From TrEMBL, chain A:
Family: Belongs to the sulfur carrier protein TusA family.
InterPro entries: TusA-like (IPR001455), TusA-like_sf (IPR036868)
Single annotated GO MF: transferase activity
UniProt-recorded name of the protein: TusA-related sulfurtransferase
Origin: domain of life: Bacteria
Record bears the keyword Transmembrane: no
Domain UPF0033: 7-31
Keywords annotated in UniProt: Transferase
Protein's organism: Alkalibacterium olivapovliticus
Tagged with keyword Transferase: yes
TrEMBL record, chain B:
Transmembrane segments: none
InterPro entries listed in its UniProt record: DsrE2-like, DsrEFH-like
Origin: domain of life: Bacteria
Protein name as catalogued: Peroxiredoxin family protein
Annotated Pfam families: DrsE_2
Species of the source: Alkalibacterium olivapovliticus
Length: 76, 159
């Protein structure tokens, strides 16, 4: 999936993946897609919950070699 | 998006681990676009303390309190397994390995995210803490200000 921006949050511990993602999202426009790579085990549930509550859309989640990759479409 | 939600945390504890939990939740809530306030009271005030000694006029008892209480977050002890100060050193080593942020970094992140760091003025008086000894970003208030935030708040925690 093509992303407008990629955020490397690998190696970061809770709550930093979400904090950095939110920061990055603020610089983006509605409809743009952010790819986030994370290794924090809690990120899977965290990103699902965060996207839902913040009005963004979590389009896709992939996991390979312990790296989680999220594609999030910016909401209003 | 709906109107802004609020998270209010009372940090009563002056333990490193408990303060860490409070600041992790606060930073997470800020990432949820909540308006976040941490209300520091009693021992929790020490999280806002600057680490260098500040010259202020104090009574003997206040001086004693000032000496005994941790000067800033990195001097705080653990609520469990403190082992006379060895515990915090060990846990900081482990935190580094796991890339967890030290408390001082979490506090700076909180400032960056515009989290309201409020110091309870009544307990400041009790513990003999002066405004000059606390972080510049500190705000000062009492129970009424906390309640005003909390009564329509979504998340309310006492740590």
């Amino acid at each position: 999936m093509n992303a407008d921006k990629i955020l490397d949050a690998k190696g970061l511990a809770c709550p930093m993946p979400i904090v950095k993602t939110r920061k990055e999202m603020k610089t983006m426009n509605t409809g743009e897609i952010l790819e986030v790579q994370a290794t924090d085990k809690g990120a899977l549930k965290d990103f699902q919950a965060w996207a839902k509550s913040s009005g963004h859309e979590l389009l896709e989640t992939n996991e390979s070699n312990d790296i989680l990759t999220f594609h999030i479409k910016k909401g209003e | 998006m709906s109107e802004q939600k609020k998270t209010n945390i009372i940090l009563f504890s002056g333990d490193y681990d408990k303060a860490m939990a409070a600041y992790i939740i606060a930073n997470g809530a800020a990432a949820y676009d909540h308006e976040v306030t941490i209300f520091h009271t009693f021992w929790g005030l020490n999280a806002l303390r600057k680490d260098e000694p500040i010259q202020v006029k104090k009574t003997l008892l206040e001086k004693m309190f000032g000496k005994i209480m941790p000067r800033g977050p990195e001097k705080m002890g653990l609520s469990n397994m403190n082992f006379a100060g060895i515990g915090p050193k060990l846990i900081k080593k482990i935190m580094k390995k796991h890339n967890a942020m030290p408390l001082i970094d979490l506090i700076e992140m909180a400032e960056e995210q515009d989290i309201n760091l409020v110091a309870c003025t009544m307990t400041m008086d009790l513990l003999g803490l002066n405004k000059a000894e606390l972080r510049e970003t500190s705000q000062y208030a009492g129970v009424a200000a906390y309640l005003a935030d909390a009564e329509d708040g979504g998340v309310n925690l006492f740590i």
